[in-house]
Amino acid sequence: MRFSLAPLLLLATLGACTTASSDYPSLALRDAERATGTFQPVAAPPYVPPPTPAAVLDRLDQLAAQATSAHRAFQANTAGVRTLVGTARGTTPGSEAWARAQVAVAGLEADRSRAMIALADLDRLMVDAALQGAELERIVSVRDGVTAQVEDQNRVIGTLLADLR
Length: 165
Fold this sequence. Notes:
- By secondary structure, the chain is an all-alpha fold.
- Helices cover 67% and strands 0% of the residues.
- It has four helices and no strands.
- Helix 2 (54-88) packs antiparallel against helix 3 and helix 2 (54-88) packs parallel to helix 4 (137-164).
- The radius of gyration is 39 Å and the shape is elongated.
- It starts with 5 loop residues before the first helix and ends with a helix.
């Protein structure tokens, strides 16, 4: 068996490269590197949105009037439709009373659709205002009112259609 002395010589020479001297700087944090004091963020002034343009306010008033008109028409027609649905209750689908009631409910749905168109336009106004960083309170207020009207109309139509089944 022959041993090579080359690896042993190499290890011995590498060991000579390391010294125990402290010529190298420490990697520990120095006093100058330590963070001292506290940081206080500056409070930003509250954002005040620009006023809503007059054209948007006019459009908002038009849409509110359109939704109110549609809701009044819906309410005015509801009593007559309930009468027709009451008459058709228990009849077979396709009978004359059932068909009249269906047509009457479709009329209510048409009144509701006018309010839903206004609601969709209000949604668009709200999105545009939000993207521009404009004031939203008045738009949201009108939109919430129209949404409540449409939800009421949905409930009435749902009840009437359930009575026709």
